[in-house]
Amino acid sequence: MDSYKVGNGNQHIRLTADVSTLGFASSRAISIDLDSDEPGIPVANSDDASGDIINKSIGTASSLARKRLSILSRIDLFGTLEERKAEYKSLTATYLLEKGTDGKKEFIKPVKTAHQNHTRAFLHKKIDLTD
Amino acid sequence: MRRTFFLFVSTFITFSTFYGQGGISAKLKELAVPNSPAFIIVDLTPSVFQTPNSPKEFILGVAQSYQQSSDGFPQNYSAEFTPYWWINPSGRNVYSAVGLRTTKDSEGRITAVGKENPFSGLKFATVSVAFLSKDLIPDTAKVNQKIFSVGVKATIVKIHSKKYGVSLEKSINHWHAAAVEEFTNNREIQDKLARYNGDKEEEYQQKLLDHFKTERTGEIVKEITNVISQKPLFSWDMAAAFATYGISDSVWRTGRSGIWTTVSTYLPLALDEERNPKNYLNLNVVFRYLTDKYQLNKQKQIVSGNSVDAGGKFAMEFDKLSVGIEALHRFKNGKADAQNRTVGVINYKIADNLYLRGAFGKNFNTANKLIALFGINWGIGSETVKL
């Protein structure tokens, strides 16, 4: 499991998610407290159909400590089946967290799945945020 | 025949192995009639006119000429691929895929989406190879040569109507807004994904996200792909190819090499189709420079020579049927020549993913002057979704 030390201060933790795809992409990041039954709290969305989240504040270090960050990207693929399969194979994403105790830290290799005859794909990354 | 087939199978296996790491394969039903430069250079294609097409990752093509169908099995094979699918450059996004310009700030954030990028087709340049059996040496012996050819092609400029870019940007933004809403509607799924600590995470994600509910995004994607499928008002394509002939089992000689350019326009046939036209009047102009080591001169001697072909094509393209005629005139070694090529080309959509394609007419003064080519397309699809 990937982890990131955010610390305990009031500094804002920043997230970048870079989705590389020719499909229509959108992303949402949530923080969730694994010790409670409360639903996850949305902390960032992509701004356009690139699916990228660029250097967005996801909350203060103290509010995020001991929670889990989940970043889900949904990609609608188009073209023929061969084209969709080719695009699915080359689909990647990288994630960057900043301003915590760990400084800049990059994360790669999200879990990737294809759905509905490769017309849709999802990328999911979980990162535990520690104090 | 067996040797040719063996050559093809060997080549296919080589390709399959080469690309096998990426899991790429081509099934029989996905074979497509080739219109690649590697086929065009040897006049073995329904049309010499190169037009913008869908950048398939990998196409395996077959073509059967009536003159060579002694056992009914095709003797001509080609493979065409788009390297872009494998180089995976950074900064890829859907806007560049559909040909829209974007402006980014220093952090890489898209700050503006602009007009259509007329050079967007360049990145989908293709490479093709072909293995053929055809008599391209105009001597008295009616013997087919083994031919290997390789070619490249690219769409240099592609311009749609002014509304194309505006319409696409609006629809894509519409899709993104709807997609963000759908995250909210599926928040329980993301919560479960986030909480999962077990093994087999991919399997869990696969099952869970099969239930991801969508509302409007599917319809919006259909709208967008309809816009993308519109043919360009103007396009400029370039292609080049080289062919070598197997004179005997161990001797291979350079046969032909050429470079050609095609300028095309597609005019919607009905004004009320402006939003989503399906019927077009297609006009093309082509120039081709060809060097051929095996040309027949007036003294009936085989000599090396250069030629320039110039011509045009007129076609009517309807939803399921396209009918056209193309004519090329040849200038040999800088002088006008009596040779010309006049070919009628017909394509008919029999059913989804099944196309009938034929070409009939007269070729230049090659060993086989009659063109009678027939093929069936599998798996090219309705061509409503093109990049």
Q: What is the structure about, briefly put?
A:
Chain A is mainly beta and 131 residues long. Chain A has helices at residues 61-64, 81-90, and strands at residues 2-5, 12-20, 24-32, 41-45, 53-60, 67-76, 92-100, 103-107, 111-115, 120-130. By secondary structure, chain B is an alpha+beta fold.
Structural class of chain B: alpha+beta
| Unreliable sequence segments of chain A | none
Count of helix runs of chain B? 8
What is the percentage of strand-forming residues of chain B? 35-45%
Q: Overall 3D geometry of chain B?
A: elongated
Could you describe the largest sheet of chain B, including whether it forms a barrel? 12 strands, antiparallel, barrel
How much helicity do the residues of chain A have?
10-25%
Number of strands of chain A: 10
How far apart the termini of chain A lie comes to 16 Å
What portion of the residues of chain A fall into strands of 2 or more residues? over 45%
Order of helices and strands of chain A: EEEEEHEHEEEE
Rg of chain B: 24 Å
Mean pLDDT of chain B: 75
Q: Which assembly state applies to the chains in this document? A: heterodimer
Would you tell me the overall average pLDDT of chain A? 94
